[in-house]
Design brief:
Layout lengths: L11 E9 L5 H11 L3 E13 L2 E7 L2 H14 L4 E4 L5 H14 L2 E4 L14 H11 L5 E2 L3 H8 L6 H15 L2 E4 L8 E8 L2 E8 L11 H14 L4 H17 L2 E4 L2 E3 L12 E5 L2
Helix pairs in contact: 1-7, 2-3, 3-4, 5-6, 7-8
Length: 282
């Protein structure tokens, strides 16, 4: 009789977000990213979207009670400590997410998904203030892009200096670490801003030109990668660098999924050597 081999342990993470029927963003991107890092992914779906990489055709939100039921069912058997949120859509689901985070003391990476790349509203107007109120002190990280940061912080961002000012403000207001994505700004480098523990950092990678549709899902992928890094208990500086490198690699090694349609995909090569993290000041 052969000795039974030791079963491999996978840390787990939970994503609370909308589905993407096209597979490029939302739950599909989150679970794909968790898997690429060796993290077992579970999910609570907030809304079913009918979309492809170019457009969101329809949104059908789930009842908040259904979102809560999914989260509770997962946590009943799976010892999840790390969670990410994406599209929440309405105030009731916002409340459900933050109630679960508090009840179960989850470490939350919050991607404040508000508008799709194609311009579809993904968070209702009356949910924005509820979201901002519940967010304070509840998340370990928030990962806004520039339009989301402007909405959350009431600021205008036209430069890296503006990003630093806004990130510092969000860090103080919401009592959380901030990963402000700078992909909407032109420049010779793709620069993000990190605000953590009262300090500011720039996080840079080379600019890469990819087919337009290939960038669909970058925000979901980034926040999912950061959640996976937290589940793996990596030091935060390594976590943000690895997350950015994963997005960079997923873009540089994008794949063709149909005639003229490309998509991000987990890379086979590591791009960490291209990522630079520097402490800076206002």
């Amino acid at each position: 009789m052969t000795k039974k081999s030791k079963m491999k342990f996978y840390p787990s993470a939970l994503t609370v977000a909308g589905s993407d029927s096209g597979g490029g963003a939302g739950i599909a991107a989150d679970l794909r990213t968790f898997n690429a890092f060796g993290v077992f992914g579970s999910c609570a779906i907030t809304a079913v979207t009918s979309q492809n990489p170019a457009a969101v055709r329809r949104i059908d939100p789930l009842p908040a009670e259904a979102v809560t039921a999914q989260i509770e069912a997962v946590l009943e058997k799976i010892p999840v400590k790390n969670c990410k949120s994406g599209m929440l859509f309405n105030a009731e689901i916002v409340d459900a997410l933050f109630a679960a985070v508090k009840k179960h003391q989850l470490k939350l990476v919050c991607d404040p998904v508000m508008v799709s790349t194609s311009g579809k509203k993904l968070l209702e107007d009356d949910a924005i203030e509820v979201f901002k109120t519940r967010l304070k002190g509840a998340a370990s990280w928030i990962t806004p892009n520039i339009p989301e940061a402007e909405l959350l912080g009431g600021c205008q961002i036209k430069s890296i200096k503006d990003m630093l000012v806004c990130a510092a403000g969000l860090h103080e207001t919401f009592e959380t670490s901030v990963f402000l994505k700078g992909g909407h700004l032109p420049g010779n480098a793709a620069t993000d801003v990190i605000a953590r523990e009262g300090k500011l950092y720039t996080l840079t990678a080379p600019v890469i030109e990819v087919p337009h549709l290939a960038s669909h899902g970058t925000g979901c992928t980034l926040s999912a990668a950061l959640t996976a890094m937290c589940a793996l208990e990596l030091p935060w500086k390594q976590a943000v660098c690895e997350s950015k490198a994963f997005v960079y690699g997923s873009l540089s090694q994008c794949v063709e999924i149909g005639p003229g349609v490309t998509a991000m995909y987990p890379p086979t090569e590591d791009s960490i050597q291209l990522i630079k993290l520097d402490e800076t000041e206002l």
